[in-house]
Amino acid sequence: MTSSVELPELPDGELPGLFEGTVPPGVYRCASVGPDVLMQAEAAGWVGTVVDLTGAASKADFMDRCATGLELPDWFGRNWDALADCLTDLSWWGETDGYLVMTAGWRDFEQAAPQEADTAAEIFTAAAAYWAVRDAHLSVLLG
């Protein structure tokens, strides 16, 4: 199982590398996320969004925040399998050069619901690996 605590940090100044391909796609912890990251993603031809986990303390909270932040399709079943399905079939998000999911409030969620955070990290990691061998990559920043 992927422990969210063991995920690598995105080094300072390496964000452009995600979009340029010099930093491999994947799941990274980061200090914070902000609107400038979305602007950089858009400028690179990527689609990006923020999932705000501020105050999330359960799986249900996490799923609700994902449904809202990612604007998941109506068929999203608010369970781990459905999240994995959505993240490996991004047709609902449109075609692009890459996909960027950023979270805000990850560390608080991780402390409030460590098992759920680990499961979410595992799903994010599997989805990033799935997209790593395709034309459009997926990266997740846990801030």
TrEMBL record:
Any single Pfam family the record assigns to this protein: Barstar
CDD domains: Barstar_evA4336-like
Domain Barstar (barnase inhibitor): 50-142
Protein name: Barstar family protein
Stated family: Belongs to the barstar family.
